[in-house]
Amino acid sequence: MGVVKVVESEKRKKKRSKWVNYSIGVVVLLAIMGGSLVIYKHFIVKTNNDSFVAETKEGEILDETGKESIDYSYWNEDRTISTLHKMTHQKVYASDKWGAVQMTNDRVNRLYEIVKNSSFSNKDNLLGILEKWKVGDFSTVDKDHNYFWKYQGGNVGEATGIMTAEDEQSFIESTFKQTQNDGGE
């Protein structure tokens, strides 16, 4: 009888030990996943946002009068579409957004000049979008976003609608607050 109790007690200890090991494993896995999310959101997204804003400063050079002029050799079709795509992020709802460039009148006008003076294969479509944006017409900005998104092979982050003015302002404040005074408008 005593041997049976010892054997049963050892079986219970093994079961309990397995359960404890599984529990510890799950907790460690959740901690790793949570830590990865925090690192991604804090470091990678902020780094990407900073580099995207900086990206718009590249491609500009000072002409002989000291005014900024456009370095057309920098602005190829892919880079231009990528920048336009990131600009739409402040105006659309999407499940996932990679990068952001603040949409300003100056940027819209400069990108319009780049496209107008280009030989891009999508020149007509891009000019049509930018002409609307130049006059403040963003009624199809979600469709514009999805045009860029599809061009770039998007599979996550399709625009599902146009942000309210309040949501757009909140996005601008939370995304661009550290770059508001970068002189990039």
What class do helices, strands and sheet pairing give? Answer: mainly alpha
- End-to-end distance, in Å? 86 Å
Number of structural units classed as domains: 1
Using DSSP, what is the number of strands?
Answer: 4
The gross shape turns out to be: elongated
Q: Note the run of SSEs as H and E.
A: HEEHEHHHEH
Keywords: Membrane, Transmembrane, Transmembrane helix
Organism: Niallia circulans
Protein name: PRK06770 family protein
InterPro entries: DUF6241
Brief account:
Helix content is 62%, strand content 7%. The chain contains 6 helices and 4 strands, in the order αββαβαααβα. This is PRK06770 family protein.
Show the helix and strand layout:
Elements: H1 2-57, E1 60-62, E2 68-70, H2 77-88, E3 92-94, H3 105-116, H4 123-134, H5 141-151, E4 159-162, H6 165-176
Antiparallel strand pairs: 1-2, 3-4
Helix pairs in contact: 2-5, 3-4
